[in-house]
Amino acid sequence: QGSATHGAAGEMRTQSAAAWTFRVALLYTCCVAHHRAAAQGGGDSVDLNWWDGRAELWQGFSCTNGVGPCLSFEISPGGHRILSSYIHRGERMTVHLHSFGYTSSFQVFIKANEVPTEQNFDSKMTRNDPGFAQFTCKGVMLYWRVQLANGHAKAKFGVTITKDSCLHKDYTQLCPAGWLANLNGWCQPPKTYTGPCRKQNFFGQRELGHEYSNPASKVYKLLWSERCGATWPCVEHIGAQCMPELNYLEHGRWRHSGCKDGEVCKVFPLSPSGGTGDWRMLMISVPAGSTVGVEVLPVMTSDSVARFRDQNAASSLGDSAGHETFTLAVRDGSDAADAAEAGDWKWTQSFRGRAPYVQLHNAGCTTWSKYYLGLYSENAKSAQVGVVLTHKQLANQNCA
């Protein structure tokens, strides 16, 4: 099967990336770590797993985020390699496969949560698309199988992994984020930059026959980012594509309810005020860079219709619920442990009315925020309420 060396270096979607050549060392059948992260000036660490067919176990590697190559390996004709990495909630992973002087065909089969085969896979790429990017709003283990066709020579590949919360970066900008644009397409790094590209770098227009040879192109800038450990500004974060998550406490356990934007996510029955079951504990996770609106709406039941007819005071069925009152209490859950009883809480805000509404904000760029909500009935009769979540991206978010 060959050998491997360890370098320093979403709703799932795939997009192409470019290949580039690198120098690789192959060391028998064992895996060796080379810690170049500090010198490369890369980001935090990401985990990459490689299936060792001879030992029949997974080998784990810690790679420097966005700096490559992380892992290099060799494949014999008709053979394959299987790799995996976990993509966290609200995270995007970009995988580049770098070929070393290999021009024949190969395929990569990709699948979430289980090892792919040539017949069972979610997506597929070939040497014409030697890289892919995938993101998730839930968190998933992604597996990919690099398959070499029969009748060709051995092939050497390298893998670079980049994980971040950015869905789209603005490569139309001349310079990386935080860099100073000088005259004629040159960019100067900030004093805080510690990567290997410390002098001025040129990103002006220069046609040399290939996109990855043109410093102004997206492909050139993407590959330069992997080598130099700096990146371009983000214009859309993954949080804008992810719905908030609603969980509710039932019989001492948190349960999840799937939601669609602007629709009733879950209907809760509430007992008369003062009785058992007159309140509900909710937990809402807000995606990074997002605002979530939480609205509580009374649901028409046979009892509420009967009360409407008896009262004969409202002009529409919707007004029959207008005499019901609810309280929605809110607490930021960032520094709080889960609680099983509403009495354990000191609520920071409360909203009272027939249809209480609150907005939850998360100005962060990567981490989801957690809020706890207490929903209380103040009515003499039983009632049913629906919880509606609306989601939008924060405007003017300042994230690199």
Automatic annotation (TrEMBL):
Pfam families: CPW_WPC. InterPro entries: CPW_WPC_dom. Coiled coil: none annotated. Residues 166-236 form the CPW-WPC domain. SMART domains: CPW_WPC. NCBIfam families: CPW_WPC. This is CPW-WPC domain-containing protein. It comes from Mantoniella antarctica. The lineage of its organism: Eukaryota, Viridiplantae, Chlorophyta, Mamiellophyceae, Mamiellales.
